[in-house]
Amino acid sequence: MDWLINAGSTGHKFVLMFVAIMLFVVVMGAILLAVDRPKRVPGWVVAAAFLGPTVIGLGFGLVYPGLRTVWGSLLDSKGKDYVGLENYVRVFSEDQFQTVLRNTLMWVILVPLLATLIGLVYAVLVDRTRFEYLAKTLIFLPMAISMVGAGIIWKFVYEFRPDQPGVNQIGILNQLLVWLGLPPQQFLLSEPANTLFLIAVMIWIQTGFAMTVLSAAIKAIPDDIVEAARLDGLHGTKMFRFITVPSIRPALVVVVTTIAMGTLKVFDIVRTMTGGNFGTSVVANEFYVQSFRIRDLGLGAALAVILFVLVIPLVIYNVRQLRIAEEIR
Amino acid sequence: MNSMGRRRSRATAVSAAGVLLLVGACGSNDEGSAEETAAAIDCAQFEQYGDLEGKTVSVYTSIVDPEAEEQRASYKPFEDCTGAEIEYEGSREFEAQLPVRLTAGNPPDIAYIPQPGFLKSLVEDFPDAVTPAGEAVVANANEFYTPEWVEYGTVDGTLYATPLGANVKSFVWYSPSAFEGAGYEVPTTWDELMDLSQQIVDDGAIPWCAGIESGEATGWPATDWVEDVVLRTAGADVYDQWVNHEIPFNDPQIVTALGAVGDILKNPEYVNGGLGGVTSIATSAWNESANGIPDGTCWLHRAANFYQANWDEGLEVAEDGDVYAFYLPGKSASDKPLLGGGEFVTAFSDRPEVQAFHAYLSSPEWANAKASVTGQGWFSANSGLDSSLLQSPIDQLSYELLTDPSYTFRFDGSDQMPGAVGAGTFWTEMTAWVASDKSDQDVLTAIEASWPSS
């Protein structure tokens, strides 16, 4: 038994992992076989056998922790005594958290809209050009970089050194300013512009995703529609406005909501680049800081619940749009 | 690999690492016996721990490579002589993860906790998980550490943790060669320090450089500044009351102290050499902010002894070298407050091997083993430490100041305060203090408001 619980070496851990996976396969196989073998099994038994493990897994892994978090948000900082809605009152009344909520709002509005807009325009512009393949690859590349990596890269881009003899700029943006004869700026310092500079990083990452999905949608517009529109005299921006955009509306909605959901959870960029200082914190970052650094468990849970509540309408809207899109097809 | 072979390979590694504990050959039996391989170490000292063959002790800390390598090397004598195995795990997310592991019922055997305030909250939140120190540990603590250091590891009269490493923060880094060239003297009082700063300005340079950017922990170097100056303008007694919240955080005496810090850090003429204006303090990485001293763009940088790890390898850290540090002077030459810190060994299990390892870590044998495998940047408050083993002059100076009774030692204040303040608002408000020129009074009032009521 000890061999199964305490893995010392990496090799041992791998073997254990393999054993665990095999165990899972065997148990699941046994259950399914047991249901399948006898001829007349009531429908509910089959349903329970197939759904049961999933329901139990979701219950332990998702529902229970979710309910625990909701309950935890009603407790004090040590997670012991019941304090009612006090944590929520704090989040919505104290200055520092209002900054956090304001920033989150900026992120959720600006990132999906700008990333989708830029991605869409880019997709239309490069569509069926000679460099389409290369152009798409370039804009898609940032998607492959982790948010922490992107944060570090952009921190260097924004890096500030004074305009002083013997001191050289490190950040490319400030070097450009100096070449233009302008004083270098501390981009990450002044509120609320610094949040915009952080948002730029997320847009840089997400545009590739928007471009890829939208490009595929554009290519799926039937040729006869485009041709008919052209015969009716539609060109350029009008074609874009009246044919392209309406035709890919479902894809647009999915892209916007998906990016919005990812943006609500943004944490890595803020943490790597400013640590939430200088008024750049967002809900996900503040949730981590309160829960794990300051150890105010109640407040951390309240922030997590707020994040959860904010995501729900987006998820519902996203799912509904996906359904509608499928019905059309 | 059988255990004997494993031991032999370990012993080879030990001699390769240069562990110089050549106190004498231990009672080696015939060739090939288990003890033979550990001949370089005096195993007699380890007999008190008994035979711990096959036992494992897990250690969880915030100390990561390359310092972790030195930590592991310092355990070799213990491992070789007792046969126990130390499983070392260092994590940058240590402070966040330790409570998670305790909540999950998966504690490490031993953890090195860098803040007494954190220890206190762990004992309060997880009374069953934190294990009081055993007899041997208590005996070591009382014998080799001053009562103050024992007190930092004590919660409600019970000793839980013993000091591991120590550091001294009341230092100002400077360039001895540049000082000599310009004819500057090392100041011995606060007024002389301010005069020197003005002198440097008059000579056409910016005296100070400072940076408090440290990722998620941005702001902590500024809290050290405040603590050091509170000790100098208000005195050690007021400092204790302030740290223990017996006076409000925004007491007028603290406002005065913050004002004195501002006389340097918020004076555009005094900062920020090579790094920009006053606000650049907030965005300059603390571990790079003193590079202006060898580069000649600034002259003074207040930082702890462990800042030496951040200098370029080519620089000589010595009293007559490229860079060195002088004691941040007190109000008068006889007023010598000393700010410092350290980490504390805490056990979460009372298994014999865990208690034995804890006792070893609190003993002079470990301190000396650690000193001899560490190149620079480490010393301990252990009175049994042989300071001649310390390999860097700044470490020797730090140890000297720490053990000199004419200096009044005080432990880092923010490390003793509740997490919401010491690792929360004190950091963020000090950052706002430089970044957005928030006033002294507003900063201190905001921190006071965040002090947990219970």
UniProtKB/TrEMBL annotation, chain A:
The chain crosses the membrane at residues 14-35, 42-64, 105-126, 138-157, 196-218, 239-264, 297-319. Its main location: membrane. Keywords: Cell membrane, Membrane, Transmembrane, Transmembrane helix, Transport. Residues 101-318 form the ABC transmembrane type-1 domain. CDD domains: TM_PBP2 (cd06261). The keyword Protein transport does not apply. This is Sugar ABC transporter permease.
TrEMBL record, chain B:
Belongs to the bacterial solute-binding protein 1 family. This is ABC transporter substrate-binding protein. The keyword Transport applies. The keyword RNA-binding does not apply. It comes from Cellulomonas chengniuliangii. Keywords: Transport. InterPro entries: Bact_solute-bd_prot1. The lineage of its organism: Bacteria, Bacillati, Actinomycetota, Actinomycetes, Micrococcales.
